[in-house]
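Annual report, structural modelling task.

Input specification for the adenosine-5'-diphosphate complex:
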Amino acid sequence: MTEFYNGRLIATIGDITDFEVDAIVNAANSSLLGGGGVDGAIHRRGGPAILQECKQLRRHSLPDGLPTGKAVITGGGRLAARYVIHTVGPVWQDGNRREDALLEACYRNSLDLAAGHAATTVAFPAISTGVYGFPRERAARVAFGAIGEYLYRNTVPRTVYCVFFSHDDYQEFVDEANAILQAVNDQE
Ligand code: ADP
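The model returned the following structure:
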């Protein structure tokens, strides 16, 4: 576990469905009807109540699905987390299709929803770095920057966990974060 930003961003290794936080973020797809990876794990562990709410959202406000970069919130079902925030990361193409901006929007919009529901603790998976193919180091840079900027400007959420499924993913994030902080330091 490594802390950044005065302990308000914590990078750690684990299964996000175990996290006892106010909200966990799901790297969903635009259908909101479930998928593989972290999405599948969240629905399996959280039970059918989450999918029911997602279906309601589709029927009432999102007939065409959730656009990339946006986020919606449901209850957490049987998870320890009270809420699940579903966001759709960009599919990596070549880096010139607004992938960075869309991934940044995922973090910002998810944090906005968390704040709107008074969630003081939030856990994120590494959005888009699985089947969506976003290069991990570049995704780490976007995530670390977007979360850092949000925490700087807002007091809620108080603490954000970046949860990595493997030690390598975790280490890559920590290395990238330290490189960014070092570069900022060197400028000052
Ligand atoms: P995407 O479609 O956005 O790429 P994936 O679910 O395929 O989403 O992968 C996103 C990241 O989540 C990957 O780095 C993957 O290793 C990680 N992941 C998968 N399952 C879990 C889990 N249970 N807890 C935390 N992270 C997970």
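The first helix runs from residue 37 to 46.
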